[in-house]
Design a protein that fits this description.
Two copies of one chain form a homodimer.
Chain A lengths: L12 H24 L4 H24 L3 H10 L2 H10 L5 H7 L2 H9 L3 H9 L3 H7 L5 H10 L2 H11 L6 H4 L6 E3 L4 H8 L11 E5 L5 E6 H4 L8 H4 L13 H11 L3 E5 L5 E6 H19 L12 H27 L2 H6 L2 H29 L5 H34 L2 H31 L4 H29 L1
Helix pairs in contact in A: 1-2, 1-3, 3-4, 3-5, 7-9, 8-10, 15-16, 16-22, 17-22, 19-20, 19-21, 19-22, 20-21, 21-22
């Protein structure tokens, strides 16, 4: 990636981070060195402060030249102490835009370093939708101060933006709408546009409205640019427009952006008035963020843990998940406990049982991953559920017969016990069928009960395949071998 | 989501799918009914063919009115037989754009239904970059036919597009570049643009070049639109431009698009000439697809399995992963096998050992998920590796002490055996430390050896935490309890 055309290729964000780390380390060395010198305190202090200032000035200059997203990257990559040094050097009028770019965990550490007045000042440089993004991380009274510092128009927008829950279009939209009446000529439209210094970012179309701001269609800039100035806007207007309600789910909007290759789409109220817009940059951020949040949620992590969070905070973050898994593991362990008598007689059972349980878990997770994906793509319906069931059961039986036989033979050879091999093979097959059923029904049930099937499915699934795996294998062994 | 402004809100893709399914079911009912009637074959055939035609005509009309992405959605949601009926009804000039929208697995089934001539004809309606996207799924001789059917200019573009590997910018870029010289006025630029019927989609800026096509900067349309026509393009040109090489990694480009909110960026050759462009719609598709591929790869699935794939194909797709996990589970089982003597004496060990192993796996997966994410964000460096190690070990000890104690007490109460409780607690703590180390080093090692740490980490990790969990617990028990 090259960031410039005239100058030699400038640095990547990673290189900026390395450079800043180096400058910070240098400064620490110099400080240590000065501190270790003898001599009178005043002179030492003077030298220290000069060196300090030089270093910081260089750092500050570097930071001033960077895109807010690059400064955010650097802040993310630094341990807390160094992070706050850098944060102190950022020009205060850039605070707001940088706060928007960092992750929640890092934002918390930066906000903790600012007083209310600084936060309110930072918010002054942001748009209503951007302030709304920050608001959940701010103390209630600071949010109140920010709202009061806005003018009437901005305040209404801010209150509107604040009223929509995370995951809705309302939480992603912004208010930089450029709309135009359909009964004017392109010439007039262009003259109207020239009143702007520059159109808002991501504007690839004007929203065409009637006199009451009802959406009539859109006029793509790429069409306006190549058209005869005398033509009326109405003639060029696209009537087949994808628009959203602020209450729509952001995930659905993201799918529409992908499907129809949108750059910018109008957000309209229930009565059809244009109230805001949704842009592809917000959608792209949303897609990436929800992907990351899901990755983390799958192993029981909330987003709020940065790489340098304290051990204590991190342990607290991860603890509940371990506790939950401990409970399910404990129940599975009690299933084994019920067969302790059998295990005492044939300890080989203890060695073989984790295989039956484990492969069941692997297989079930394959099924549930496919089902979760199909649910996300709206491809599972009552009409095809039976077909899916037949398919998954078929695969379970087929894989179970195959790998069960392999393992049954291995167990037979290992322990010179044909019956043990047979029990092993049968248990494997049955547990793969259990896994197929669990992998299919657990995500469906979670979806039905309004939970995100991508997140909790695997705990439940492992619980079922472990407990049932132990039960089936040890149960069959008790019946047939002892 | 609303797809229209003048008409009442039109249907969602899901509603289209339901309607098509209904039409197909209706037709099948009618066919069955007619077939069951007595009467001479000719008359029956006539009735059948009339009903058939009416139904198909209605379906065809519906399909013609849909966006290619919506037709693709319908094809994805139908079982093979119905899918091919619908595919046969799609107007052949739309085949190409629809093939582009469906998933690889479904594309294979559609291509299998077409002969070479049809495929070559479908490709005629596509751009070079789009053909290159399809090419990996086509027989080599068909690709050759397609290349030969292109004119010289298109052929050069196609060969260029075909030469870049998946995951590179070259594989995502397209050739719809609109460039302009910097020494002309905006007036001239606008007149030049009017030669287009409409600018290519996702064009939010013109690429400014010198007479040899070297990139000099970009001119955002939003600025061109509001500028005085007499101003020279050079004056308005942005010199700080994000551009890419066709060899750049697509993932890096995607990060740049997110970071700098890009809509469209130039792709330049090594000598600085503009050769293509990268647009946000391609980036958004790439982000979503690589996310999905990764989800599937994590449980050992390749992308090529659609919801209605045959049991046999699916079992083949999932088998290797189960085999791999069988091997690791087998090794872990041999660790237990080594302690069969101890288990015979104290069967409680068999019941408790899965807990130690399981919680180790959960905890290690938390660590490795965070490390994989930090690696993806370029936040792990030699400088902070030691700090990370200290943090993860700290968390392992803390959580180990906490949950080890809880479980130790439970084991003690359950089996009325203090020493067993102590061994349980100690084993838990040690295995959580092992898990922290494995969760940190396995992804780092995979990254070092050029493998995707997001994919294989969890198999290795579970292998380590299972084997070591069994070994530590049973080993301690053998030493201290027996």
């Amino acid at each position: 990636m090259t960031l410039s055309t005239d100058k030699p290729p400038s640095a990547t964000p990673q290189e900026h981070l390395d450079a800043v780390t180096r400058l910070l380390a240098q400064q620490r060395l110099v400080e240590d060195f000065v501190r270790r010198q003898d001599g009178d305190g005043e002179k030492r202090g003077l030298v220290e402060s000069i060196v300090h200032k030089q270093n910081l000035a260089e750092l500050q200059k570097r930071l001033d030249g960077l895109h807010p997203a690059d400064v955010a990257f650097i802040l993310e990559g630094l341990p807390l102490e160094e992070r706050l040094v850098v944060w102190g050097l950022v020009r205060s009028d850039r605070d707001g835009e940088i706060l928007l770019e960092v992750s929640d965990a890092v934002r918390d550490t930066l906000l903790a370093d600012m007083d209310s007045a600084e936060i309110v000042a930072a918010a002054q440089n942001l748009d209503a939708d951007e302030i709304a993004d920050l608001a959940p991380d701010l103390p209630v009274d600071v949010v109140q101060d920010i709202i009061e510092a806005q003018d009437v128009h901005e305040r209404a927008q801010l209150q509107s933006a604040l009223s929509y829950p995370e995951g809705s279009v309302g939480a992603l939209m912004d208010f930089e709408v450029v709309s135009i009446r359909e009964d004017v000529t392109c010439e007039v439209a262009l003259r109207y546009l020239r009143r702007y210094d520059e159109l808002p970012g991501q504007t690839d179309a004007l929203f065409v409205v009637d006199r009451d701001d009802h959406l009539r269609g859109i006029l793509p800039l790429k069409r306006l640019l190549v058209s005869d100035p005398e033509i009326e806007v109405a003639t060029l207007t696209d009537r087949d427009v994808v628009s959203f309600s602020p209450d729509s789910e952001a995930e659905e909007a993201a799918k529409a952006f992908e499907r129809y290759d949108l750059v910018c789409a109008p957000v309209v109220s229930a009565d059809g008035r244009v109230i805001a817009r949704l842009t592809v940059d917000a959608v792209l951020d949303f897609v990436r963020e929800s992907q990351e949040a899901q990755e983390l949620a799958k192993v029981g992590l909330r987003e709020e843990e940065d790489l340098f969070s304290s051990v204590w905070l991190s342990a607290k973050n991860r603890g509940p998940w371990l506790a939950l898994n401990l409970c399910t593991a404990f129940v599975a362990s009690r299933v084994v406990g019920a067969f302790e008598g059998s295990i005492e007689k044939l300890a080989a059972l203890a060695a073989l049982m984790p295989i039956v349980a484990g492969i069941g878990g692997n297989s079930g997770n394959q099924t549930s991953t496919l089902i979760v994906r199909a649910l996300a793509l709206d491809q599972v319906s009552a009409a095809n559920a039976r077909r899916l069931l037949a398919k998954e059961l078929g695969i379970g039986v087929l894989n179970g017969a195959l790998w069960g036989s392999v393992l049954g033979i291995v167990a037979w050879l290992l322990y010179r016990n044909v019956a043990l091999g047979g029990v092993m093979a049968l248990a494997m097959m049955l547990n793969l069928v259990v896994a197929a059923l669990a992998g299919l029904f657990i995500p469906l049930a979670m979806e039905r009960f309004g939970r995100d099937p991508a997140i909790g499915s695997s705990v439940f699934l492992t619980f079922v395949t472990d407990s049932m795996g132990f039960f089936i294998f040890l149960g069959l062994a008790t019946v047939f071998l002892l």
